[in-house]
Design a protein that fits this description.
The protein is an alpha+beta fold. It has one domain. It is about 20% helix and about 30% strand. The protein contains 3 helices and 8 strands; from the N terminus they run ααβββαβββββ. Strands 1-8-5-6 form a 4-stranded mixed β-sheet, covered by helices on one side. Strands 3-2-4-7 form a 4-stranded antiparallel β-sheet, with no helix packed on it. Helix 1 runs antiparallel to helix 2. The longest helix is centred in the N-terminal third of the chain and has 18 residues.
Length: about 130
């Protein structure tokens, strides 16, 4: 039952971003593969560019401010095999939004010369969207 709930949340997340015109129609194929891994939380990159993600919020990251680059239209758990993703990094000169799938809350991050390291709440899934140059 838990896996079905996760798959449903992911499908809703992808459909919602497609309806908002954020994703290309090919994102539907990403949703099909998003049903296989049971993760405590994940991040979906709904942008046309890669974003930095942190597996743990521990200050010790493989690439300075993040652990890996999450490609466009992918889920962090499926891309990296992580059972949790605790942070997102939006680089300097970019702005964007992060939606909490569980609560519906949307947080916006404006332009920054140093970038934004964003701590994600445990147990919630997130969608990164509307990332663009300032």
């Amino acid at each position: 039952m838990h896996n079905r709930r996760i798959a449903l949340l992911r499908a809703i997340c992808v459909v919602a971003t497609i309806c908002l015109g954020i994703l290309a129609p090919s994102a539907a194929s990403a949703a099909k593969t998003a049903e296989t891994l049971d993760a405590s939380n994940w991040v979906f990159n709904g942008t046309p560019i890669g974003i930095g993600v942190m597996r743990y919020w521990d200050g010790d990251y493989d690439h300075g401010k993040y652990d890996a680059v999450l490609p466009s239209l992918t889920f962090s758990d499926l891309e990296f095999g992580w059972n949790e993703t605790r942070g997102v990094y939006i680089g300097p000169g970019y702005r964007g939004q992060i939606s909490n799938v569980g609560t519906g809350a949307v947080s916006s991050y404006g332009c920054s010369t140093t970038g934004h390291q964003i701590h994600l709440r445990e147990g919630y899934n997130y969608v990164v969207q509307n990332v663009s140059r300032c």
